User: Fold this.
Amino acid sequence: MIAKDRLIFPLDVPDAQQARKHVTLLGEHVGVFKIGLELFVSEGPPIVDTIADLTDAAIFLDLKFHDIPATVLRALRSGSCLRRASFITVHCDPGLLEAVASEVPEHTKVLAVTVLTSLDARQLAELGIQPELAKKVVKLVVQRAKIAQEAGCAGVVCSGHEVQAVKEECGEDLLVVTPGIRPEWGDVRKDDQRRIVTPYQAVRNGADYIVVGRPIRAATDPAEAAFMVVNEIQRGLEDRHQGI
Ligand code: C5P
Assistant:
């Protein structure tokens, strides 16, 4: 994989027209386009084919499924959109992860969402997570990553602060996708993301893929911003391999 293949750009836009615009503008620098709830709900399942037909990049269908296993399996069987999705996301419930991992086609990688990067320790405690785990988000993430691995998932989604611990505990083979990326040069640091790191730090810590949305979308020149992110990925990879 080259550095560009590791950059996931979320098509967090309201309609197909804007999604097409971003795919055309950023195709040269992005390895994976992510279709999330906003675009999927507004355009419906055909949006997956629309985007896949436009680009050689991989497609990530980020619907973060979370329901009883039977319901999620029925949803997966009722649509053809999985056909072209290289990645899908599921929340971390043991029975659900296992059911989904055994259902999807071979080319589709199931990623378990561990703890959303918009949640911090205080919010986790409010949700009833034991104080000891809430304060040490990394422990909670690693616990869930192990559940995902045992269930047969290809990887997990977690913040750049937890990547290293997940790789140490679960091994290199479990893929780690890291959102909550905020480059030092970006101007979107004070938003809903809480557990943030730079592209370089995430990759240096072991992330296989990073999700970078607003720092690219909100930049004056989004293609240039994507190019700068890919350069940081490259630097992170080099330093990681050299153990710097
Ligand atoms: O870079 P930016 O904050 O705009 O990226 C937001 C994207 O990352 C959204 O598409 C969101 O769904 C995704 N994401 C996230 N936290 C997770 C998983 C995915 O922010 N834990």
